[in-house]
Design brief:
Blueprint (H helix, E strand, L loop, with lengths): L1 E2 L2 H5 L5 H21 L8 E4 L12 H10 L8 H13 L7 E4 L6
Parallel strand pairs: 1-2, 2-3
Amino acid sequence: VTVSSMWGQVGASCEAAYSATKGAVIALTKALAQELGPSGIRVNCVAPGVILTDMCANVDEDTLASLARQAALGRNGTPEDVAQAVEALAEAEFVTGQVLGVSGGLVM
């Protein structure tokens, strides 16, 4: 299971390089799924949204609150939310080449 970002799915202003690299992770995931599928190897990707980690340390509380309000579930994510998604993809035996958004509905 690879890890991209919601910005790899939709792009972000002032985040061109980050968005491009995360989009590349998605493309790599799909290519590897095609290449390795005949060998029975599955490759999937999670694309986290706003996850409350050290990466958010320099983001002010008002911005984080605004992002939480924009998500359909009304909150920002936790590392545990991402871990649950990774576990689900790792256990799904007939799923490959997929990108699972873990953004609480911030990106659909």
